[in-house]
Write a structure and sequence with these properties.
Blueprint: H1 35-48, H2 53-65, H3 71-87, H4 92-105, H5 115-127, H6 130-135, H7 138-157, E1 160-161, E2 167-168, H8 171-186, H9 190-213, H10 218-232, H11 237-251, E3 281-282, E4 288-289, H12 296-316, H13 320-324, H14 327-332, H15 337-355
Antiparallel strand pairs: 1-2, 3-4
Helix pairs in contact: 1-3, 3-4, 3-5, 4-7, 7-8, 7-9, 8-9, 8-10, 9-11, 10-11
């Protein structure tokens, strides 16, 4: 078996100086021989340390503004980011954020296609091959699934300025995701179905909200496709279980909880957390009772009164217990002589210390 790979880096003999002018990006950015190497190095850095995005993205954008000044250079930048986002595991999210930032901060904005337009064009090229990719071999399907999840992240993170200054999502990506879901469910192989589940977990709530605003029932159609797959498709039992859990998730409004009323309007009937800040007490049998119990207010007031009586005992020294316990209680709760003697010593010692 040959170990040669078309993706292997170029080989140069020792002493040979590579011709860097082949790169569309200009030379000499930030001390690197070519901007291509600088961009790739930064992308690798983000893949290893994604938390650095916030602190280093502005400097990266500033460097690119000194390098990217031709249409070819812009195309190469888009391709580098696209390849990183669809080939490096878990880079799709940070790659989508990077694309959003550059779409707003790259100074080079040619009429024949700015960064965002070229990026969407590159995604559309992959989108057109969706049917063949979904039916292809394992490698083709793996690349296709990576593209689908990157497009989902772009839909969530790519911000487009509206005519009135509002920030919108790209509707074209919403349409694309709908078509991709149809493609995945039309080819119910395990890998395709797992990709569809991931896509819907990531974007399902946002997509359904957007479709409902337009009066569309696309999500209902997708759920119907899922139910048909579970009944008819020859997929694995685990994948069918994943699909059923997804249907369950959607039935719970994608796991979102809506508060039915404001704090001032909350009542025990409409707010399950109404009693959460009230104390919990225990009966003599060890059974807990809270503010949700019907007799709580009466028992709570009784405990408060008892607390006041014991505070009176501590303040006056003696006699407070006679105000609370009746004769029957004293008989029922009569202390052992040794305990009573120890208790009396404790009270006398407390009184002595208080007077000191």
């Amino acid at each position: 078996m040959s170990k040669l790979s078309v993706n292997a880096p170029e080989f140069y003999p020792s002493g040979y100086t590579a011709n860097h002018t082949e790169s569309s990006l200009e030379d000499g950015c930030d001390g690197y021989p070519t901007s291509t190497e600088y961009v790739q190095d930064f992308l690798n850095h983000l893949a290893e340390q994604p938390a650095c995005f916030e602190t280093e993205i502005a400097h990266f954008s500033e460097i690119l503004n000194g390098c990217v000044n031709t249409h070819e250079a812009l195309q190469e930048l888009v391709e580098l980011i696209y390849q990183q986002a669809t080939s490096v595991p878990n880079f799709s999210y940070i790659g989508a954020r990077l694309c959003n930032y550059l779409s707003h901060h790259l100074a080079f904005n040619p009429q024949n296609g700015n960064f965002r337009q070229l990026l969407l064009g590159r995604c559309h090229k992959e989108f057109e091959n969706r049917d063949g990719a979904a039916k292809g071999d394992d490698a083709a399907r793996k690349r296709f699934h990576a593209f689908v999840l990157f497009l989902a992240e772009l839909y969530l993170n790519l911000e487009i300025q509206g005519s009135k200054g509002q920030v919108n999502r790209a509707d074209i990506l919403q349409t694309g995701l709908h078509e991709l879901l149809n493609t995945l469910f039309s080819n119910p192989l395990d890998g395709n179905l797992i990709c569809a589940v991931k896509l819907l977990k990531l974007t399902g709530s946002v997509l359904e909200d957007a479709w409902k605003e337009k009066g569309s029932t696309y999500m209902d159609s997708i759920i119907q496709k899922i139910e048909n797959v579970v009944l008819d498709a020859n997929c694995s039992r685990d994948v069918k279980h994943m699909l059923l859990k997804l249907v369950e998730l959607r039935s719970s409004n994608w796991g979102r909880v809506h508060i039915a009323s404001t704090y001032r309007e909350a009542t025990p009937e409409n707010d399950p957390n109404y009693f959460m800040n009230e104390p919990t007490f225990y009966t003599s049998e060890g059974v807990p009772f809270t503010a949700a119990d019907p007799d709580y207010q009466e028992k709570y007031q009784e405990l408060l009164d008892r607390q006041d009586l014991f505070q009176g005992y501590e303040e006056n020294g003696t006699g407070a217990e006679d105000q609370y316990f009746d004769d029957d209680d004293e008989k029922d709760d009569e202390m052992d002589p040794e305990i009573e003697e120890a208790y009396e010593k404790f009270c006398l010692e407390s009184e002595r210390k208080r007077k000191q």
